[in-house]
Amino acid sequence: MNPSRRALLRTGAGAALAAAGLAAGAPAATADGSRAALVTGGRVRNLTGPAETGRFAAPWTDLGIPARCPDGSMLFVCGDTFDGGGVGGPDWRSPVGLRSSNASPGALAIDGSVGGAHAVGLVPEGHAGGTTAIPSDVFTVGSTMYMHLMRGVIYRTHHSDFWRSDDNGETWQYLCQWPGDQYGGQFQQKTYAVADDGYCYVLSTAFNRDITSGLLLHRVPQNALGDPAAYQPWGYAGGAWGWGNPPTTITGARRWGEICFRAMGGKYAFTWLNMAPLDIRAQVFALPTSNLFTTPEQTMILPTVPGLEVGNAVASPYGGFIVPGSTFADFHIAVSQWFDNQNYRVMQYRINGLAA
Question: How far apart, in whole angstroms, are the C-alpha atoms of residue 188 and residue 158?
Fold first, then answer.
């Protein structure tokens, strides 16, 4: 089945930006429209593709959310995955797990999969009526891995659900789910920062690139991740921000693509696919409750058209998930690409000049 239900990223925005001379790098965009230091970057390697992952019956796949496993390997959890000659080929699975036995950002290479020679779907998903299971985050707390999925026809999320693995992602057990319309749909796509204070901090948006959504913040004790009642919202009420208030957006509403939130280097990093204008951005801040309305937005990946990819300019980019082991001085992200049925892959990019 050809997954034409997914809205492809338009290359027109990339062409417009390239024509404006924004193809090789971009300064950080601040809330007042001023510019900071230049952020640059470049492709390190393709992580997936016929040459890289075809031997696992996964030549065509995307997302590749990276999580360091308890055994020290790296698991990349991917979205819609196909065998055969291109996107829409046979053996549609989602999600799948691909492995790099070396977890160093400088030496990543897929050399295994969950399922061995044939990457298997990590959870039951028959794709009846065009439904799928799209991962929005995978992360590790102690000896347990967690995975959050958005379920339903693409961009019509019926519910999201949450799973755990105690064997490095080989098998997954269901924990809980949330309705797709919770908080007006703004709790569909979730990403988790594992903090050192016993909490995970959770950012969420609607999962639909075509609609405007706020960005909500919750916290949940790390020993209660599978209990929806334990998720405490952060919101503005009675003239003050506070935990337990009804959730309100913590930054300006916009059209969001994929999001990724991580605690690292004594700070927090948030990366996302921005839809208007199309690019992949980052914010770095001190606390989960920092003011994101005024935190500079740093552009890491810019769009371009096929054949004009250079530096951090990518044709039809999305994703942008932070690779574990990154530092602000050596920052790596997993970037997806899809502009035709044989250009659908996950790539690793190194970002230079990120202000922290």
Answer: 9
d(Cα 275, Cα 277) in Å, to the nearest integer?
Answer: 5
> So what's the pLDDT on residue 9?
41
Burial label for 286, CB within 10 Å (0-12, 13-18, 19+), is exposed
Q: Which two tokens stand for residue 118?
A: 């044939």
Q: Please say if the pLDDT value at position 2 is more than 50.
A: no
**Residue 287 gets which letter from DSSP?**
S
The C-alpha atoms of residue 61 and residue 79 are separated, in whole angstroms, by 6
Token pair, residue 55, equals 């031997």
Tokens 């046979």 locate to 90
Which residue is it, tokens 């999962």? 207
CA angle 300, 207, 193 (to 5 degrees): 60
Residue extents of the structural domains in the chain: 12-352
Q: Could you give the CA distance from residue 173 to residue 309 in angstroms, rounded to a whole number?
A: 41
Residues 55-102: tens digit of each pLDDT: 999 999 999 999 999 999 999 999 999 999 999 999 999 999 999 999
What CA–CA distances, in Å, run from 46 to 232, 302, 325, 337, 352?
A: 39, 18, 18, 10, 18
Token digits for 237?
């009420």
Instruction: Indicate if the alpha-carbon torsion angle 222, 225, 230, 235 is positive or negative.
Output: positive
DSSP strand pairing (131-141 vs 112-113): unpaired
Q: In angstroms, rounded to a whole number, what is the distance separating the alpha carbons of residues 75 and 139?
A: 10
Q: Which two tokens stand for residue 59?
A: 């030549």
CATH topology assigned to domain 12-352: Tachylectin-2; Chain A (2.115.10)
**Length of the chain counted residue by residue:** 356
Q: What torsion, rounded to 10 degrees, do the Cα atoms 325, 331, 332, 338 define? A: 150
